[in-house]
Amino acid sequence: MQIPKKLLPSDGRFGSGPSKVPHEAMEALASSSVIGTSHRQEPVRALVGSVREQLRALFSLPDDYEVVLGVGGSTAFFDAATFGLVRERSQHLAFGEFGAKFAKATSRAPFLGEPTVLSSEPGTHPDAQAESGIDVYAWTHNETSTGVTAPVRRVEGADADSLVVIDGTSAAGGIPVDITQSDVYFFAPQKALASDAGLWFAIMSPAALARVEEIATSGRWIPAFLDLAAAVESSRKDQTYNTPPLASLFWTDHQLRWIHDNGGLPWSVSRCEDSSSRLYGWAEQSSYATPFVADPGKQSPTVVTIDLAGVEASAVSAALRDNGIVDVDGYRGLGRNQLRIATFPAIEPDDVSALARCLDYVVEQLG
User: Fold this and answer.
1) pTM here?
2) Aminotransferase class V domain location, by residue (predicted)?
3) CATH class of the domain comprising 23-260
């Protein structure tokens, strides 16, 4: 099947992660001298410092919050948090793949008590419940697998020294957040920050930093790769404990500069909301497509999930891929006849509208 060129988007990358890295960012990296130099030297340390300062500005951080980074991505941070943030017991909201992964990590730790896991049907989210003895409450701000957004807020009635730990991986840079409602807001940059994999960033409150130090000096064995105390110490020197992926750092810095140049977080949030609303509006008017997340208050502005009826989603995504429109397949673990489309800041809203037109064309051709 050949989609008419006049219908095609200018860029056909709509993946939910790794996501679109703008061509100008890739060209900038090609002309940079950062690749091939030591991560202990000033050029890379300046790059790390730039990223940390730009994240501080993006989220309007209080003076006593710190930006910490390390190697390994969000999944590695689940393990790092299991070793370095949970004192005894955690509570997890599991409403998709990534919240469930964090819960699994803590449940398998032999030095922790059994976590509480609150689940809900895909397409919805549960709410945290205050529970005596819970010292970490954890959930995802935006569930990348299902396209559900959950609020970031303190847990009323929780123990005074409990921490709120939020996975912001597909939200950071595209969804509004009051960072002071959390103690740790962590994310990888290969989604809304238009970079590549291999890094995690964690914005930590004074209480979280104190918890890291407390556990690090408690005698608990912690693998060096997952040592949050080492990550905090290195980050304060604008370094990482292990060698970082320099391209990911460079592209994160490039995307943050672009966002700030255009108006900061309010601008990037508005752009994502513009793009996603075009898809939700199209699906609501469609004869074969329906937003998977029924509650508009829970619909993600950065990862849009669409159920299809009367046509195989796999056939639609295959036809789109043949025409250069890629990575719109639904999350495999859900097993639904579904498309999943990223609407991160780097994706042009007009390209989202073009994608909707291409979907209509493909479905019509498939009969």
Assistant:
1) 0.96
2) 135-326
3) alpha beta
Contact 205, 65 (CB under 8 A): yes
| Cα–Cα dist 94/99, whole Å | 5
Which pLDDT tens digit goes with each residue over 90-131? 999 999 888 899 999 999 999 999 999 999 988 999 999 999
Calculate the alpha carbon distances from 103 to 65, 78, 94, 99 in Å: 25, 9, 7, 6
pLDDT digits (tens, 9 = 90+) for 211-248: 999 999 999 999 999 999 999 999 999 999 999 999 99
CATH code: domain 12-21+264-366 is: 3.90.1150.10
